[in-house]
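Researcher: We're teaching a course module on how sequence relates to structure. For the next exercise, students receive a sequence and then see the predicted structure as tokens, so they can try to spot secondary structure elements on their own. Here is the exercise chain.
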Amino acid sequence: MFLKKFIDLIFYSNLWIAMCATAMCSQTQFILTGKLALNWLMGLVFFATLLVYALHRIIGISKVSEFRENERYAVIKKFKHHISFYALVAGFGCAICFWNVSYSIKLSLIIPGIISLGYVIPFLKGRKRLRDFNHIKIFLIAIVWSWVTVFLPALEIGQATNLPIGLMTLERALFIFSITLPFDIRDLKVDSHSEVQTIPAALGIEKTKTLGTISLTAASLTALINWFSFDYNLNILLGVSFSFLSTWLFIRQSDKIKHDYFFTGLIDGTMILQFLLIWSLSTFFSN
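Model: And here is the predicted structure for the students to work with:
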């Protein structure tokens, strides 16, 4: 019972997804510099992710009253006040880190920041969020996550305008796109109730899983190009490849496993897995 409560705390307080975002940023930093270092940008990404996802939980629970008995929503409802407190703390952390990052980082956060807030906060006619429009939410997620976890760390160290970074950004966007598809499969009933049409609703589950395979294949080819022509060494390529393989296996099971730990824990956790694979292979098998 204690273990379940601890896991629920990590997952539904949004600490896990914030750790995933930070891991992706750290991965980019490690690939480009060969080392890991805590800095204000890492703190900003952690606290901003914690804040945005906390707001998403708080606002989203009010829009799915028909599903509040679902285990995931029941946990979120039970700890709504806790999540609100985490959002407040994250807001303070976010403000402090934002104040200390460079001016170029601040400017580069304007567009993804607007998209992120528009994704979770109703502001359009009819009190709609960006995620409430048909088909677009998965593309918004891929764009924002790849921008924040690749372009911003590269910008911080002065490498944001070269071709390898463009390829890495595309690879990350394809990877994020692929791991978001299972969540759309999981949320088919909820999105249908909210009258939001997603890719699984339009294509069907099997074709959606095939699309995930295609996206991961394209990401693999992009990583291969970066290894063959530019910045990746063999350890990075192997780490990315093993990560994509495990992600593909999870995607193939995404309509068969219903427990939310599979999605929130394992599928989101592929981001941390990818970082750990690259870091460990590069650390223990370096030339």
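Model: If you want an answer key for the exercise: The chain has a mean pLDDT of 86. The chain is about 75% helix and 0% strand.
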